Amino acid sequence: MSEHLTVVKHPLVQHKLTLMREKDTSTASFRRLLREISLLLAYEITAELELTSKNIETPLCEMDAPILAGKKLALVSILRAGNGLLDGVLELIPAARVGFVGLYRDPETLQPVEYYCKLPGELEDRLTIVVDPMLATGNSSVAAIDLIKAKGAKNIRFMCLLAAPEGVARMKEAHPDVPIVTAALDECLNEHAYIVPGLGDAGDRMFGTK
Ligand SMILES: O=P(O)(O)OC[C@H]1O[C@H](OP(=O)(O)OP(=O)(O)O)[C@H](O)[C@@H]1O
Ligand SMILES: O=c1cc[nH]c(=O)[nH]1
Ligand SMILES: [Mg+2]
After folding, report:
1. ipTM passes above 0.95
2. Closest atom, ligand 2, to C-alpha of 196
3. Which residues make up the binding site for 5-phospho-alpha-D-ribose 1-diphosphate (predicted)?
4. Residue ranges of the domains in the chain?
5. Which atom belonging to ligand 2 lies closest to the Cα atom of 195?
6. Which residues sit with their C-beta closer than 6 Å to ligand 2?
7. How do residues 9-43 score in pLDDT, each as one tens digit?
8. Per CATH, is 5-51+64-207 categorized as 3.40.50.2020?
């Protein structure tokens, strides 16, 4: 991908995102909508994957048919909210290898606290798609991508649902080689570093916690 930031303006994405933002949307609907949007974002983020060809036999004849080139993709979910995007992407790319980085944002310092990390092998040879619905200060995604790069990944993309300008700038500074695909670029962060207008706490809305 050549752009550092891609906002997916597809009408279905925008419609579903509006439903997710509404404060009275139920946990069940929120989860379903996130899965549906993740399929559409996955379509976009994989649009330029490299193809090679394979000789196959159809019931009628032989042909050279396109298939994905290279090693299986890696998907990395930033726990816990990342799992809401992961489920949909895995439906589209079921053979992908999957890793998890467990981080939560300390509400006082806004720094990410790591509590888990398990990543697939041979990351240097794979396209790695990192998923987390919220890019707020960017501290969590930058820290997760630091860990993923330390494990060898060189070709990384980041998928989110909402991005704040502050988070996009932080990512561009720390990881200019990592393209971001998002459903919306919101206005700003509030005094608690929540995205405005945003949708609130993605993890809490997805899992029904508070
Ligand atoms: O860009 P940042 O300012 O770092 O904020 C974004 C992070 O905050 C949320 O996670 P949270 O810490 O709420 O953890 P959770 O997924 O367990 O709810 C979100 O899913 C991101 O990981
Ligand atoms: O707006 C925000 C910011 C960080 N994490 C969230 O879940 N929402
Ligand atoms: Mg949360």
Report:
1. yes
2. 1
3. 80, 105, 132-140, 201
4. 5-51+64-207
5. 1
6. 134, 136, 194-195, 198, 201-203
7. 999 999 999 999 999 999 999 999 999 999 999 99
8. yes
